[in-house]
Write a structure and sequence with these properties.
Layout (H helix, E strand, L loop, with lengths): L1 H25 L19 E4 L19 H6 L4 E8 L8 E5 L1 E9 H14 L5 E6 L6 H10 L19 H7 L3 E5 L10 E3 H4 E3 L24 E5 L3 E6 L2 E6 L4 H4 L2 H14 L5 E4 L7 H8 L44 H4 L16
Parallel strand pairs: 1-2, 1-12, 2-5, 5-6, 6-7, 8-9, 9-12
Antiparallel strand pairs: 2-3, 3-4, 10-11
Length: 362
């Protein structure tokens, strides 16, 4: 009897120890890096896909990405900019992802995208994900609540009280399973606390950056208001008018340069200006250039070497292209000065190529 009790006690202790070890192992990496586990959410920089849903049709005038959202997740994108519109069916419990107008680019129902995100989060318990919503159609928080609940994401939703400056660490968010953060640019209210008003926590640099102009480090939204975190909008566009609306045209042919030397320079300049790292580094055509490698250096971690799907890789997985200098800066249009990310650590993979004007064929 004593021996049986002893064996039972040892078994319980071993089981508890095994569970503790599993929990410890689960915290060894957070968003791919052990060093990020102890950092609070607001002290981490996240690779961000601008208009992440806008990957189809390929090479369309309004297409901002090449890869679909499951591929973006696999490649290390951890924040997603999405635009919400009313569903064509008129169903108030559904939301459509569209670019400017649904007849310009229709990214399909939100339910499909959330299902993909849930699949990834279920399979990858050490990842913290962020969605940044543009509420273009002034939808109600209850509509978002319905779609998220139907997708089974409710257990993952993190709510941060307005005015609360102390964010949890990534490890704490992972342990609690509250690791899906949602910001919305307008329409937030207290009835859905996890759908947080973006500009209570985050400011944004200007997003309308015409090709051939400098990348700005000014506060665009909310106007002249510093916040705890910020979005570095880093994508260039051409424009044309359709049915009285001005449509921004993404520039995929320039993305090697835009997301390579120009991105480094823009980050350098804004870190100098704001004295804080960019929380969300938002780009078009993320597989070009060196987004995840550059963000790793912003986070002061050694890049894990995961190259983006479809990247045209040079040395160390970086993309060749652009007219970068050996110190990581770049010259000409859409370039900003900076010195925080320097040549030996970042820019060695960039080879100079001929620069030229991009012609829009409409």
């Amino acid at each position: 009897m004593v021996r049986s009790s002893l064996f039972l006690t040892v078994g319980i202790l071993l089981a508890s120890s095994s569970s503790w070890v599993q929990q410890a192992d689960a915290q060894q990496q957070c968003n791919g890096y052990a060093e990020l586990c102890s950092r609070t959410y607001d002290k981490v920089s996240y690779p961000t896909a601008h208009n992440a849903y806008a990957f189809n049709p390929p090479n369309g005038l309004a297409t901002n990405q090449i890869n679909n959202i499951p591929t973006q997740l696999k490649d290390g994108i951890r924040a997603f900019m999405l635009d919400a519109y009313a569903a064509p069916s008129g169903n108030s419990n559904e939301i459509q992802l569209c670019h400017t107008m649904c007849n310009v680019l229709d990214g399909g129902p939100l339910s499909a995208t959330l299902a993909q995100i849930k699949t990834f989060m279920d399979a990858n318990p050490n990842e913290v994900i962020t969605i940044l919503w543009e509420n273009a159609a002034n939808l109600k928080p209850a509509q978002f609540q319905a779609v998220y609940a139907a997708a089974g994401l409710s257990p993952y939703l993190h709510a941060q009280a307005k005015g609360a400056t102390a964010w949890p660490t990534l490890a704490q968010m992972i342990s609690s399973k509250k690791r899906l953060v949602n910001f919305i640019d307008s329409g937030a209210d207290a009835t859905v606390p996890w759908l947080m008003s973006e500009y209570d926590f985050v400011f944004e640099t200007p997003y309308n950056i015409p090709k051939g102009t400098a990348y700005p480090c000014t506060i665009d939204r909310p106007k002249d208001q510093r916040k705890q975190m910020y979005v570095l909008n880093h994508f260039i566009s051409g424009v044309f008018t359709l049915q009285g609306d001005t449509i921004s045209i993404p520039q995929p042919d320039a993305a090697d340069q835009t997301n390579g030397p120009d991105l480094i320079s823009h980050i350098n300049s804004c870190q100098t200006t704001f004295k804080q790292i960019p929380s969300f580094v938002a780009v078009d055509f993320y597989q070009k250039g060196s987004l995840t490698e550059t963000v790793a250096k912003v986070n002061k971690v050694t890049w894990n070497g995961i190259a983006a799907t479809g990247a045209t890789s040079g040395k160390n997985g970086t993309t060749n292209g652009g007219s970068g200098n050996s110190d990581g800066s770049s010259k000409g249009a859409n370039a900003a000065a900076g010195s925080l990310l320097t040549g030996k650590s970042v820019a060695a993979g960039f080879l100079a190529t001929a620069a030229g004007a991009i012609v829009l064929l409409l």
